[in-house]
Amino acid sequence: MNDGLTFNETLYPGLKVSYSCEDILFQQRTEHQDLVLFTNPVFGKVLMLDGITQVTTADEFIYHEMMSHVPLFAHGAARKVLIVGGGDCGLAEEALKHKKLDHLVQVEIDRSVVDFSRQHFNDFNAGVLDDPRFELVIGDGMKFVSETDLTFDVVIVDSTDPQGPGAILFSEAFYRAVHRCLKPGGILVTQNGVPFLQRGELVTSLERFTRIFQDGAAYIAAIPTYFGGHMTLGWASDDATLRKVPLATLEKRFTAENFQTRYYTPEVHQAAFALPRFILDAVEEGREKGRS
Ligand code: SAM
Fold first, then answer.
1. What is the H or E stretch that residue 268 is in?
2. Fewest CB atoms within 10 Å of the CB: 12, 64, 260, 289?
3. Catalytic hit among 158, 161, 215, 238
4. Are 62 and 222 in contact (CB under 8 A)?
């Protein structure tokens, strides 16, 4: 992973993405994964877990804004939100900008990720851990959703990829357990990879969503460090109208919240559900399999 002055991402066999490393800020084999935080001249601070890029200070805003504001503005009245994963707390910081939200639970399996993020990522997670609405649970997301008696308006799975501790967060059992703790009109959003390179994961997620929810879908965002083109965010709910909220409604809700963004706009929200044909084909293949 680190040959001298570079860190290589090895998520895709046959393909190597190399980041030159200026400084290693933190490196640890935690109880769950290999963790390294280093600085790169282009992307700033880069967090890798088990050799896979998780978040960088240069482009985290794209990912965190699209994973939070799309479900929260689509819902329009979310008060109880669950984040599974999200150890860098950038997603939590974006979600907490929504004034209606009164309880945000974050279930993160690896305390080390949160601890070092508190120190090194306060560029984008400042204030989260001191926000009275925020509750951090250190534990497995699967165990939490299986056992909790809390219910949520929105569940956002900001997980690693389907390997290691993250694998269970892509299982049908996990999605069924999430469905159990979603309130009526609730929305599930998932980190669902780069379909140009991870097509199978999207098909499988849509197959499982379709088996459990009335409406399984996906939306896209372009995140430079998630190499390979558009990234898909999985979407599941029992109300198909939630992903077709009129632009005027999104604009009204966005204006009412009155916070600044650098990627999300109501127009981008709507456009994100317009999938390129090859991604829509993968979504429809998954839906077909889920219905059979
Ligand atoms: N933005 C990244 C991406 O798209 O790949 C994800 C960022 S975040 C760092 C991923 C988090 O998921 C990590 O902190 C990891 O520890 C956490 N995680 C992995 N498996 C988990 C599980 N079973 N339960 C809770 N958290 C988990």
1. helix 266-271
2. 260
3. 158
4. yes
Give the CATH number of the domain where residue 81 resides: 3.40.50.150
How far apart, in whole angstroms, are the C-alpha atoms of residue 87 and residue 55?
10
User: Structural domain of residue 38, as residue ranges?
Assistant: 6-54
Residues 37 and 74 in one domain: no
Is residue 215 annotated as a catalytic residue, yes or no?
no
What residues does 45 pair with on adjacent strands?
39
User: What does the alpha-carbon distance between residue 27 and residue 163 come to, in Å, rounded to a whole number?
Assistant: 20
φ, ψ of residue 226 to 5 degrees: the values are -95, 85
Whether 140 lines ligand 1, by a CB cut-off of 6 Å, is yes
Which structure tokens are listed for 72? 């929260």
pLDDT, one tens digit per residue, over 197-252 is 999 999 999 999 999 999 999 999 999 999 999 999 999 999 999 999 999 999 99
pTM equals 0.96
Is 76 contained in some domain?
yes
pLDDT digits 0-9 by tens, 33-80: 899 999 999 999 999 999 899 999 999 999 999 999 999 999 999 999
Q: Residue 87: exposed, middle, or buried by beta-carbon count in 10 A (0-12, 13-18, 19+)? A: buried
Q: Which ranges of 76-230 would DSSP assign to H, the alpha helix?
A: 90-95, 111-120, 122-125, 141-147, 172-180, 195-212
- Based on the domain organization, do 107 and 27 belong to the same domain? no
Shared-domain flag, residues 93 and 229: yes
Q: In total, how many domains does the chain have?
A: 2
Q: Are residues 183 and 142 in the same domain?
A: yes
Residue 230 lies in a domain: yes
Distance 75 CA to ligand 1 centre (A): 24
